[in-house]
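stage 2 :: seqdesign
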């Protein structure tokens, strides 16, 4: 059995995530406008909606804007995250697979997770290599070791 090829793949903010946020924000605003127009005078309910909706939308957009970008590297045995702030090494797990994008988490220790979104459009030529590496069987761990024991944590 062959292992997955080594691959370097750029990851960052998802255009689809941004479009989904834009659509949901627009639908929420449209629903609010139609709801407000159906009343003769606005009530406290519309005020409460605004107090909840505006911060929720702002928080969602802030999260999208601050989504980390960097490079995922599979060296044939372990995953590396090379970001602008720091490098990490750990176990990569897919959570959402929509064929043109993957939502992945890289766990580099107890409670430390780096979420990344990989899109096919970021590097068409290496997309299938990335997918093979993501779904490749985990590296065999020596007897007596757990998967988390085999992690090489950054200094």
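stage 2 :: out
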């Amino acid at each position: 059995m062959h292992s997955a090829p080594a691959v370097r793949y750029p990851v960052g903010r998802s255009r689809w995530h941004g479009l989904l946020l834009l659509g949901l924000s627009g639908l929420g605003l449209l629903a609010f406008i139609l709801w407000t127009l159906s009343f003769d005078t606005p009530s406290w309910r519309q005020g409460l909606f605004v107090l909840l909706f505006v911060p929720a939308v702002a928080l969602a957009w802030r999260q999208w804007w601050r989504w980390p970008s960097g490079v995922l590297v599979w060296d044939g045995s372990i995953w590396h995250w090379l970001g602008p702030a720091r490098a990490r090494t750990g176990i990569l797990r897919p959570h959402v697979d929509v064929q043109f994008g993957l939502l992945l988490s890289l766990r580099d220790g107890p409670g430390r997770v780096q979420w990344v979104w990989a899109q096919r459009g970021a590097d068409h030529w290496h997309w299938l290599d990335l997918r093979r590496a993501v779904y490749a069987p985990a590296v065999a761990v020596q007897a007596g070791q757990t998967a988390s024991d085999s992690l090489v944590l950054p200094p």
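stage 3 :: structure notes
- The longest strand covers residues 87-97.
- Residues 2 and 136 are 10 Å apart (CA to CA).
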